[in-house]
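Aim 2 progress update. The chain analyzed this quarter is reproduced below.
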Amino acid sequence: MAMLLAPRLSYFAAVARAEHVTRAAQELQVPQSTLSRAMVRLEQDLGVDLFARHGRTVSLTPAGRTFLASVERALGEVEKAAESVRADADPASGKVAFGFLHTMGTETVPGLIRAFRADHPRIRFSLVQNYGEAMLERLRAGELDLCLTSPVPDEPGLVARRLDEQRLRLVVPADHRLASRKRIRLAETADETFVTLEPGYGLRRIFDDLCTEAGFKPRIAFEGEEAETLRGLVAAGLGVCLLPPPTFPRPGVVELAVTGQRAVREIGVAWLDGHPDTPPVAAFKKFLLSRRGRLLPEEYGE
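Predicted structure tokens:
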């Protein structure tokens, strides 16, 4: 019924407001005969008289008044929705729904947005922090326009571009037996107790793969959801951890370079394949792609 009635609702509201079919037709810029037939069909489809006819004028019946109140609310909601999507697509002041990893929320993403808004000061952002797979689910559902994630996805329906990489470090307590070292092979940590992210996180998958490549299965004491919490656990002496470097040094821990393996986390941007971009999304996508190789802030100590 809604599909049947919807095309004629704005016609009905115009006639109801004007109380005159000719004036309403002029306002809508449609032939009077088209408007008259539409009102007759509307009443036939509803099985209710909406108008009382008085020569060239019309007035609403009680049923027509009831129907008009709901129609005006519905048309108002449609108009608000249209204004909202037009505003979000505005090249100068539209909106970008942007997802990114928790570990990129402190320095990387604020710096990117600050640099982008130097040339696009009025573009707005809806920001989502989450782990990689959860963001990809929101991307597939159409809730995000773009997301920074790791590992870089390679799957049907998504387009992804590698932008940068981070060398992972072994984080140990400051009083740990390895704390005096500058670098280490991961195989040397086979007897250590680890703290790490929960299964499902991209960094956890990289960690598991690196341990397998190094020839051991890690002994895990704690699993968490956030990198800085893991650093806190390491500082408290509860284990060691493999993490990307922080922007600033964390007291109570020492971070060792991992050698003998390619211990890195690749960062990429992903979007839905075949979905047209609004001008703000296109501009931000172009900006991100232009940062290839220099997406991340410099690591401390370099």
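The longest strand covers residues 158-167. Residues 62-88 form the longest helix (27 residues). These observations will guide the mutagenesis experiments scheduled for the next reporting period.
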